[in-house]
């Protein structure tokens, strides 16, 4: 009896802790049963935000932290029903460093943009420095394994539980999410019918020619925002960063494996949209509700702006553009004046949206 009482006490304390963290203990039926035998990810909570917006908490051993849980926000199309006989195509929108599942709905008009489309918009939460990658963790692997979680667990869970289609998906993202979108498309040819990157970190091995902001600087800053050692993500990039020895490459091959620039050949056959600014804030020249963004915005300006991050983005995306041209891989590219901010990213989401929807038949 004493042992049983202690057990009940421990469970009560655990339940209280998880409740304070905003989680639920899965019970018989309902969200807690949304797990297949071969998929460790499970839905532990659902929150209806409005008629079209559903927030879903998913727990997986691939996610680090106390609860091993992250949210995903779903924008649902008209007529959606979890018990429907049909499925819906999906558009995955990936947040940037420091972002979360609420970013796209909080900073753009994506609800209105997708309202007339027969598509489920999937906005997953990772971490401030996820890199949309399975972390190296000093060669030990293990959690967090963001790519495995998102594509190997969350995607089939959404297909099984929320009627997401299995063969019609597109992916887009901003900044770190732009790197993730193109990285996923390259690493999994055919999984996504189109991919778009807005100010994407497409080559984190980029070395600033004038001693300014370089790719590894962003990874190091991300580690600070995550309260994690940045070397856990991909290791160290080696020369010419933090060492003068050309033979000291450290874990450079891991960085290259997660770089859209270095994996560009694998993007062949996937419709691509790539946009980036030069670090100058001259205004978007566009506002929501007006005409579509004009192609005249894509002026290919010189990288003479004051914002360090977008200047680096400009340099690395110029490298990707040249590499795609060398490989004769077509891409819609818009290089314009602009900064690393939401007004420019929303403009490019709107500009690329017809291409993304056309690719998935929505």
Automatic annotation (TrEMBL):
One of its GO terms (molecular function) is hydrolase activity. The keyword Hydrolase applies. Pfam families: Esterase. Keywords: Hydrolase. PANTHER family: DIACYLGLYCEROL ACYLTRANSFERASE_MYCOLYLTRANSFERASE AG85A (PTHR48098:SF1), ENTEROCHELIN ESTERASE-RELATED (PTHR48098). This is Alpha/beta hydrolase.
């Amino acid at each position: 009896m004493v042992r049983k009482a202690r057990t009940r006490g421990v469970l009560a304390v655990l339940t209280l802790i998880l409740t304070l963290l905003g989680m639920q203990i899965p019970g018989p039926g309902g969200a807690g049963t949304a797990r297949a035998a071969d998929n460790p990810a499970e839905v532990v909570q659902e929150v209806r935000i409005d008629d079209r917006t559903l927030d879903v908490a998913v727990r997986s051993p691939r996610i680090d932290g106390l609860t091993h849980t992250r949210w995903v926000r779903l924008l649902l199309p008209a007529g959606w029903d979890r018990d429907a006989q049909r499925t819906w195509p999906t558009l995955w929108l990936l947040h940037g460093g420091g972002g979360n599942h609420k970013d796209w709905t909080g900073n753009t008009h994506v609800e209105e943009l997708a309202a007339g489309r027969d598509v489920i918009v999937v906005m997953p939460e990772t971490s401030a420095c996820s890199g949309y990658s399975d972390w190296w963790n000093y060669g030990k692997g293990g959690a967090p394994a963001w790519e495995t979680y998102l594509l190997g667990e969350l995607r089939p869970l959404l297909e099984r539980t929320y009627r997401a289609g299995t063969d019609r998906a597109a992916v887009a993202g901003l900044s770190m999410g732009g790197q993730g979108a193109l990285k996923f498309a390259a690493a999994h040819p055919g999984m996504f019918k189109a991919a778009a990157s807005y100010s994407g970190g497409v080559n984190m091995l980029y070395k600033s020619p004038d001693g300014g902001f370089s790719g590894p600087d962003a990874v190091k800053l991300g580690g600070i925002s995550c309260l994690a050692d940045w070397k856990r993500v991909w290791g160290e990039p080696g020369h010419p960063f933090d060492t003068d020895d050309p033979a000291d490459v450290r874990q450079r091959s891991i960085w290259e494996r997660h770089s859209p620039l270095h994996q560009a050949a694998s993007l062949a056959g996937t419709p691509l949209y790539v946009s980036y600014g030069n670090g100058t804030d001259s205004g978007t020249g566009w506002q929501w509700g007006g005409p579509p963004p004009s192609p005249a915005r894509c002026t290919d300006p010189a990288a003479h702006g004051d914002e360090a991050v977008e200047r680096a983005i400009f340099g690395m995306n110029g490298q990707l553009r040249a590499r795609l041209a060398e490989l004769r891989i077509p891409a819609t590219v818009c290089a314009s004046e602009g900064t690393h901010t939401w007004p420019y990213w929303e403009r490019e989401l709107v500009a690329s949206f017809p291409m993304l929807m056309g690719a998935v038949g929505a």
